[in-house]
Design brief:
The protein is an alpha+beta fold. The protein folds into 2 domains: 222 residues; 167 residues, Reverse transcriptase/Diguanylate cyclase domain (Alpha-Beta Plaits, 2-Layer Sandwich), CATH 3.30.70.270. The protein has 13 helices and 5 strands. The chain has a 5-stranded mixed β-sheet, with helices on both faces. A hairpin with a 2-residue loop joins strand 2 and strand 3. Helix 1 packs parallel to helix 7, helix 4 packs antiparallel against helix 5 and helix 5 packs antiparallel against helix 6. 36% of the residues are buried.
Length: 401
């Protein structure tokens, strides 16, 4: 009786959260973050437990076959949902239907050739393997595509590992004790159902929390990036600088102000659509030329800023020259059978500064150097001729000692 109540509550829990996942997925237009697949997984597993309650003792009947098929399909659907959450495209319906048909046929074959015990043992064994594959995927994700969710992924691996171990133990119990080991009043079955209820209680809200976190992170990233070029905007640049100077080993940084030469002429001649193409192209070139750890930003119009970290003035000048040459060498395709556009850029380089308070002064220095370069004929790199701030000179003196 107790086991029946636990399984009944588990059914309600799975089906209710399945409906909730469907509603959330319907509200997420475009990128659903796997919520549609998680909903299907919950509905499959909840329906499987409903059939278990209605089907009576373990045996051979249509409800039992459908129950086993739904139970095995659920982990595969959850795996698809997890892949979609991490922006890994994974098909759902065709593989799911193929799996359901194949496993139903396999059940008939095993029942006919080896009997009911083998059929129930097969479900436990394959379920254990499916959850083991999920654990391996989660562990791999911690080291690759889910590094930002390390704690959550480790927790999921532990929880999924628990159900994997219980299915493996059920396999042993069925092989040694036959169908009697599956009696709902059996102590092991009680532990199994309690753990499943705990798992459903923990994982469903955790999935919703992860979706909310992903949406929040996406909104934060959108607020910090320029929508046209996907480079940082001024807010993102400020946050990146603050994060750099908060680190224990933060060194001086240099600003590179990059301005596309004669950009107004490009807009007037080719139109604003081609002008946007040029901006995106220059942004891609700057992103590719920047070193790991540098910050690339579009501050407005045709002007970009690069924050050059962990280098001296000579290194900043070399980076600026590399960027200038790359912009000059890479033609911008315009489409429509028209010739590609070649553009150039002038770059002003500031002195180094060692705190966020030096940012405004560095911008003034780089801007002044930029206008010197414009006046001298454009398509060149110019370093600020203003005296370096005393704090930066002191920092350089210490590093030379």
């Amino acid at each position: 009786m107790v086991a029946t109540v636990i399984v009944g509550m588990l059914c309600v829990h799975l089906l209710c959260f399945g409906g909730m996942f469907l509603l959330i997925g319907a509200r997420l237009q475009g990128k659903k973050l796997g919520m549609d697949a998680f909903a299907v997984g919950n509905l499959l597993l909840g329906s499987a437990y409903v059939l278990q309650l209605l089907g009576g003792p373990p045996g051979w009947n249509l409800m039992s076959v459908v129950n086993h098929t739904l139970t095995l399909c659920a982990p595969a659907v959850y795996w698809v949902g997890a892949m979609r959450f991490f922006d890994r495209p994974a098909p759902l319906w065709r593989p799911l239907i193929a799996l359901a048909l194949a496993y139903s046929a396999l059940q008939v074959l095993v029942q006919w050739t080896m009997g009911p015990v083998a059929r129930y043992a097969m479900l436990s064994g394959l379920s254990a393997l499916a959850f083991l594959a999920m654990v391996v995927t989660v562990i791999y994700g911690v080291r690759s595509f889910a590094k930002d969710l390390r704690v959550e992924m480790v927790l999921f691996a532990i929880l999924i590992g628990g159900i994997c171990a219980l299915n493996a133990a059920k396999l042993v119990n069925v092989l040694s004790g036959g169908l009697a080991a599956l009696d709902m009043g059996n102590r092991f079955q009680m532990v199994f159902y309690i753990y499943m209820s705990f798992l459903a209680t923990v994982l469903a809200p955790s999935i919703i929390w992860l979706v909310l976190r992903r949406l929040t992170d996406d909104l934060r990233a959108m607020a910090a990036r320029d929508p046209l070029t996907q480079l940082l905007n001024r807010r993102g640049l400020t946050e990146g600088l603050e994060a750099h100077f908060r680190s224990r080993n933060a060194g001086p940084v240099h600003l590179l102000v990059v301005d596309i030469d004669h950009f107004k002429r490009i807009n007037d001649t080719w139109g604003h659509e081609v002008g946007d193409t040029v901006l995106r192209h220059v942004a891609d070139v700057l992103r590719e030329a920047a070193r790991k750890g540098d910050l690339a930003c579009r501050v407005g119009g045709e002007e970009f800023v690069i924050v050059c970290r962990d280098t001296d003035s000579a290194g900043a000048m070399r980076l600026a020259e590399r960027m200038r040459a790359a912009i000059e060498q890479h033609a911008v395709p315009t489409g429509g059978g028209r010739d590609p556009i070649r553009c150039t850029a002038t770059i002003g380089v500031s002195h180094g500064f060692i705190s966020g308070h030096g940012f405004d002064r560095a911008m003034q220095e780089a801007d002044a150097a930029l206008y010197q370069g414009k006046a001298a004929g454009r398509n060149r790199v110019v370093q600020s001729t203003e005296s370096a701030p005393a704090a930066t000179r002191a920092k350089g003196s210490l590093s030379m000692a």
